[in-house]
């Protein structure tokens, strides 16, 4: 019987440690806390039959497929978002960043799978650091814990808050692999896909979030709501954010309450009754609790349907998330309604006849419309929206014929992209792709960095935009581009100097 890949935490060096790293300004470090280990590890009976001599040592390699981090968070209706930066402590240099969001959150396992580009690669004993640069308001910190206790049998706990840093060493670990009775003992590096860094997300245990949604599951944005507390304890008037969330201190709520929104109904009623979970009522709440509330538009006296034609100007093979837009229709009476639209949900129903002012926004695409006015007549109207992705992944072979596949996107894993011209895909931050050069078998792991709207991969050279090249590249096209770019900078500088000299002369 073949044993699964069982990771034995026989870490050779000490586990992750905290120290400071700076960005533009010095960043405070996460405060480490030592906790006592209360249990001794039980002896593993399988170790008695396995020779302890190291079979394979992979710790001398340089890893170029990125730093891997798994952040645990219990699966709820609302998925918090945050942005982490990866820094080199030795060089005091930003390497890359990654966003934790619904694109990389595994709902079944309750884990964000983050990958940080590290084009130059990392090796044993490299010291790196994470900075929590941005986080949703209900996120308190990301908790890191050392993988094993120190010589005093203590684990080190670090709570990473916004604009603080957590540094760590690339360590080694060992694991067994192979058939029972002939297992191999292998040593490799931490922070790899084989052994990601582990952390957990802590949200505010004193908050309750009401997640306002439409029937299609889209967030109900900028929607005013009224909450009537029980036992005549008053009324709260609040407005949802761009994510459809209404955040409330749990101490301000009664154990059940009524919620309503102008022009909306819940299951045919103008108000919905919400009852808080027992953990909130008894004060045993350990994290932010989110409660979905689904609203429908009030039935119109005359049925209407607005058809939205979304025209993505970009390749949607890798992602359709960037095609989602928010359409706000404001009536002549000043009543605004916002609808989240995508190619699979492109109809707005229930609005009365009339003329509406139109506004279209999107987080990941540039949306354009021919007119900012829409007239619903006889219950019908059409709106055309063109979309261009804000983030792109470009792939080519520097002018040479190519043949590649993106093997981790199930719907197109077997598709082969061939040609000479650049293929540009629309993507969103937080996504990662494994690009395989079918001619050489080489695979590049590409992560879409929130700070890089354009990521480019040249097959055989690696990432050349949105990161640094993973290998030296001497293609004529890139050399020419670099030369022209440098020449333009020099020309601009000379022009500016001449302009300043002429200006001073005229002033004298």
Summarize the structure.
Helices cover 7% and strands 44% of the residues. With 508 residues, the chain is mainly beta.
Topology:
Layout lengths: L1 E7 L22 E6 L19 E2 L9 E6 L9 E7 L4 E8 L4 E2 L4 E6 L10 E9 L3 E7 L8 E7 L4 E5 L2 E8 L4 E6 L7 E7 L3 E7 L10 E6 L5 E5 L5 E5 L6 E5 L3 E2 L6 E4 L2 H4 L7 E6 L1 E2 L7 E8 L12 E6 L5 E6 L5 E3 L4 E8 L3 E4 L4 E4 L3 E10 L1 E6 L5 E5 L10 E3 L3 E5 L4 E6 L5 E5 L6 E5 L3 E4 L10 H32 L1
Parallel strand pairs: 3-14, 4-15, 16-23, 25-32, 33-39
Antiparallel strand pairs: 1-13, 2-11, 4-8, 5-6, 5-9, 7-8, 9-12, 10-11, 10-15, 13-14, 16-19, 17-18, 17-20, 20-22, 21-24, 25-28, 26-27, 26-29, 29-31, 30-32, 33-36, 34-35, 34-37, 37-38, 39-40
Strand order of the largest sheet: 2-11-10-15-4-8-7
Please report the total strand number as a whole number.
Answer: 40
Taking all Cα atoms into account, the compactness measure Rg is 27 Å
Strand content: 35-45%
Mean pLDDT: 81
Fraction in helix: under 10%
Poorly predicted spans:
1-26, 37-51, 467-508
Tell me the structural class.
Answer: mainly beta
Question: How many H/I helical runs?
Answer: 2
For the report, how would you describe the main beta sheet? 7 strands, mixed
Using the alpha-carbon principal axes, give the shape.
globular
Give the N-terminus to C-terminus distance in angstroms.
90 Å
Notes on the protein architecture:
The protein is mainly beta and 508 residues long. It contains two helices and 40 strands. β37 (432-437) and β38 form a beta hairpin. It is globular.
């Amino acid at each position: 019987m073949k044993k699964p890949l069982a990771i034995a935490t026989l870490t050779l060096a000490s586990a992750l440690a905290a120290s400071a790293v700076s960005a533009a300004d010095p960043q405070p470090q996460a405060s480490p806390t030592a906790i006592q280990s209360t249990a001794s590890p039980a002896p593993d009976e399988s170790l008695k039959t396995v020779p302890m001599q190291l079979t394979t040592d992979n710790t001398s390699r340089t890893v170029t497929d990125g730093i891997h981090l798994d952040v645990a968070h219990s699966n709820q209706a609302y998925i918090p978002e945050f942005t982490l930066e990866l820094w080199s402590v030795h060089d005091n240099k930003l390497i890359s960043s990654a966003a934790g969001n619904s694109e990389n959150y595994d709902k079944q396992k309750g884990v964000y799978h983050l990958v940080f580009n590290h084009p130059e690669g990392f090796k044993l004993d490299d010291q790196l650091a994470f900075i929590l640069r941005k986080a949703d308001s209900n996120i308190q910190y990301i908790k890191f814990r050392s993988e094993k206790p120190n010589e005093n049998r203590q684990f080190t706990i670090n709570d990473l808050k916004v604009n603080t840093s957590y540094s760590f060493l690339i360590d080694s670990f060992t694991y067994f692999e192979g058939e029972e009775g002939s297992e191999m003992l292998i040593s490799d590096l931490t922070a790899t896909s084989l052994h990601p860094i582990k952390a957990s997300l802590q949200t505010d245990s004193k908050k309750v979030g009401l997640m306002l949604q439409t029937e299609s599951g889209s967030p109900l944005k900028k929607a005013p709501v009224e909450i009537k507390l029980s036992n005549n304890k008053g009324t709260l008037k609040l407005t949802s954010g761009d994510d459809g969330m209404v955040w409330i201190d749990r101490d301000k709520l009664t154990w059940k309450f009524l919620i309503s929104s102008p022009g909306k109904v819940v299951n045919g009623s103008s108000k919905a009754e919400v009852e808080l979970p027992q953990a909130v009522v008894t004060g045993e709440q350990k994290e932010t609790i989110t409660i979905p509330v689904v609203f429908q538009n009030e039935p119109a006296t005359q049925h209407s349907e607005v058809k939205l034609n979304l025209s993505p100007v970009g390749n949607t093979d890798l992602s359709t998330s960037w095609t989602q837009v928010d359409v706000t229709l404001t009536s002549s009476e000043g009543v605004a309604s916002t609808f989240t639209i995508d190619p699979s949900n492109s109809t707005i129903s229930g609005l009365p006849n009339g003329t509406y002012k139109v506004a279209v926004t999107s987080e990941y695409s540039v949306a354009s419309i021919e007119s900012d006015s829409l007239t619903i007549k006889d219950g019908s109207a059409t709106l055309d929206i063109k979309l261009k992705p804000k983030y792109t992944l470009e792939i080519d072979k520097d002018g040479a014929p190519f043949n590649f596949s993106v093997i981790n996107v199930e719907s197109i894993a077997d598709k082969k992209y061939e040609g000479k011209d650049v293929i540009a895909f629309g993507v969103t931050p937080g996504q990662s792709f494994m690009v395989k050069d079918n001619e050489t078998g080489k695979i590049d792991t590409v992560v879409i960095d929130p700070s890089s709207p354009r990521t480019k991969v040249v097959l055989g050279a690696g990432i050349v935009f949105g990161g640094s090249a993973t290998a030296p590249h001497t293609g004529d096209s890139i050399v020419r581009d670099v030369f022209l770019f440098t020449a333009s900078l020099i020309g601009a500088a000379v022009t500016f100097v001449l302009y300043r000299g002429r200006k001073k002369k005229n002033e004298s």
